[in-house]
């Protein structure tokens, strides 16, 4: 990787290490600052000595790395919203009636019955406050005026509620995801339970939202189909709320869901379009400066129209640095600019590293910039049409290699038709961006003719049909692929070492590549050994009881009253995250054994006086009418678990009794599933 700034890579890796290690170390801010000070003094002293002696050693690099590890630790602590003494969790408690003043920050995809938004807490009980919540407002079809917009100010008296944890193992942890976004509570409201006022002054996001609403109003007289309008909003305006589940599923199965999230792909295509349009300016220094300025302004204007979503802000920042790097005409300017933008973004907001979009965007762009020139050097067609599609194939392969490990880890599927889909979709996206921006401009000037709007509708409709056709080729869509975090790291090492070996075949590079190839099967064997242990779970399912047991032979057994009670997602989640060999269904019994533990299930019959039984766990199901104090006196060492088949009032009463008796109690309504080791 000649030309890449190795110092910048070292500092980025150090910063990343600090951010990722922060939760494990859990150091206080004072400790992190002292560590930073010590590392900085040692680095400065070492650097001064080396400078005087005109020598170099690895100690300087290690100390510089340590300095930025400490910076990562400090940044995680400083950017934690819970550090703020005015955070709402410092001023009130969950399930407490509270006066709230909220400001709508972001509109999310609505549910069937309610609209969802992210709101900022401005005041609690008339005191200044801070922090973000997720707000669910019941839809009112008779009063559309209650629909919320960005920057709307709401006044209400209600309770802050905890966000529900996962109800089953390996389920998407929505609570953890929201907490990574700084959201720690939710509020559920009906339309008549709050007062809505308009803001005195709009934010940049609010102005962008007003602009998007105005664009959609201008397009209302034109006869767009529902799906075409949804795709238009997703591609041009960054709004995916109107996408149907069926349409989204088609794009996922075809392997092109990334085009519906305005991000690096769209900003990159826009940058290439602007570069092409401005190419007649020539390559003089003054024209390069003008071209760079126009492209950067165009990128940020597009970011404004799409509402400054996190993915667009990341992409705009990334390509701004790339443009500046190209302006300076540096070798490997694109890769250095990419690394610089990632470094600055993580320095400002370290939690970005946990966002899937951030990881996928940077992985895709990095591998396109690094691998595409290598692939293109193998063969360069003379025919322009063949060359264009050959370049598309190479870009698609490079991007897919870059995101493949992460895609398998997060989504556990591989679309075998991704290459065919991208050969059609990528040119279509470039065309639709130009066409769509023209439609927006003409509609804003009231000059949009009907035939142009109809043409856009036809193009998007045929694109949707093509995607649907690709998605229906099921046998090439590989699902439920097990892929662990260790395999992600090893796969990237294999791809990277292969790329390095591709440049030049040497003994060291060959040894590195073969070592990573050997490490993959070794990791799978180790995983196979580690997962060969028994596990038992009490799942949460409303009005149902479902237990899950994984045997040492990696057979998955679901215990329930009816096999139909088990959601398909429960099974898929296990298959995607465990090396499962077989899945079975069995009926519920009253006594289970797991390792050295005995589990007693008590249902509505309330039978528990069993001779010679000494359970380690007692699972209360179907709201049994019993005296819990008497049960606890008979089995004083048992841990109590209440699942979702019980009435909440019964669970609350049991919880209070267990707290008084100092007996461990787990409520799946509040804490999600329970794992018995």
Task: Characterise this structure.
The structure is a single chain. With 677 residues, this protein is an alpha/beta fold. It has 5 domains: 6-78; 88-201, Nucleic acid-binding proteins (OB fold (Dihydrolipoamide Acetyltransferase, E2P)), CATH 2.40.50.140; 211-352 and 381-390 and 404-478, no CATH class; 485-530, no CATH class; 535-676, no CATH class. It is 53% helix and 14% strand. It is built from 22 helices and 19 strands. The strands form 4 sheets. Strands 1, 2, 3, 4, 5, 6 and 7 form a 7-stranded mixed beta sheet that branches. Strand 11 (546-550) and strand 12 form a beta hairpin. Helix 1 (6-25) packs parallel to helix 12, helix 12 packs antiparallel against helix 13 and helix 13 packs antiparallel against helix 14 (384-411). It is globular, with a radius of gyration of 29 Å. The mean pLDDT is 86.
- Using only C-alpha atoms, the radius of gyration works out to 29 Å
- How many domains make up the coordinates? 5
* Mean of residue pLDDT values: 86
What is the general shape?
Answer: globular
Residue share in helix: 40-55%
Overall strand count? 19
Q: Output the structural class.
A: alpha/beta
Number of helices: 22
**What proportion of the residues form beta strands (DSSP E)?**
5-15%
Distance between the termini: 47 Å
How would a textbook summarize the main sheet? 7 strands, mixed
Low-confidence stretches: none
